[in-house]
Design goal:
Layout (H helix, E strand, L loop, with lengths): L1 H27 L2 H23 L5 H19 L3 H21 L5 H23 L3 H26 L14 H21 L6 H28 L15 H21 L9
Helix pairs in contact: 1-2, 2-3, 2-5, 3-4, 3-5, 4-5, 5-6, 5-9, 6-7, 6-8, 7-8, 8-9
Amino acid sequence: MADGWAAGLRPRILSSIVMVAVALAALGTGRAGFNLLVVAGAIVLAWEWTRLCGGGRFGWTGAVQTLAVLAVVAAEIVDRPMLGVLLGVGGIAGGYVAARVSGRDHPRWIAAGVAYIGLPCMALIWLRAEPGGGSLILWLLLAVWATDIGAFFAGRLIGGPLLAPRLSPKKTWAGLAGGAVSAALVGALLRWVDPQAPPGLTLMLAGVIVAVTAQAGDLGESWVKRRFGVKDASQLIPGHGGLFDRVDGLLTAALAVAIWQWATGAVPLTWR
């Protein structure tokens, strides 16, 4: 049992340390540094998605896909979200045509990556540009990381019924609950150390939403990988898969938080 735990923990800890350091460093450099990190991540994700859905091939179809994703992200960086949406629609069409012309087996799946990657990246950039956006992104990152850690330990310690056995053979309802509690506690702690943060109860509720949507994102990527018979999105992170395998939950959580902020006029989660 101990060996199994250690085998699962070591790669998680090492990869997490590196990714946390990079994310925090980029966040600390202001909007420009953070946007640059999102751009770099979008490129990697476009590469992984095209290969994941395209039998391990990238080619010029992948180049079209990557350019489409970058166009969507760039539009949000220059504060033209509607242009980003239009470019995304055009990118989906372009990716589909490119995949068909190059003889790919799953052109619709490949093309869908423009939206799957582009929209969450737009959400991250938009959230960072909001008043107090640096603190908001920091909370979001902490909540997603806490969800992952809490779900891992609760799932291992408690076990019980599986959350979605057809999608993931390890995720349990106990893990989901542990992740939600952990994300909620992060919100309460952040309010305690930062008086300018939103009310503690608001952050706790938002943490639960982040946890649920992050776990949904994780399950969604598991479903895609099962669909294409792939274990990991890539081997970019030694011993721990690809970037998609590490940020799948962040993508869906960022989109959920952005929708909440937009729908509520950015009032509940605004740092004063």
